Amino acid sequence: MTQNTAPAATARPLRRDAERNRRRILESAREVFGRRGLDATLDDVAHHAGLGVGTVYRRFPNKEHLVEAMFTERLEDIADLAKQALQVSDPWEAFVGFVWQTVEMHSHDRGLREIMLSTAFGHEHVAEAKARMVPAITQLVERAQAAGQLRSDVVPADLPLLHQMTGSVAEYTGQVAPHLWRRCLALLIDGLRAEPGRASELPCPELAMDVIDQAMCTWRQPRQHG
Amino acid sequence: MTQNTAPAATARPLRRDAERNRRRILESAREVFGRRGLDATLDDVAHHAGLGVGTVYRRFPNKEHLVEAMFTERLEDIADLAKQALQVSDPWEAFVGFVWQTVEMHSHDRGLREIMLSTAFGHEHVAEAKARMVPAITQLVERAQAAGQLRSDVVPADLPLLHQMTGSVAEYTGQVAPHLWRRCLALLIDGLRAEPGRASELPCPELAMDVIDQAMCTWRQPRQHG
DNA sequence: AAGAACCGGAGGAGATGCCTCGACTTATTT
DNA sequence: AAATAAGTCGAGGCATCTCCTCCGGTTCTT
Question: pTM for this one?
Answer without folding.
Answer: 0.93
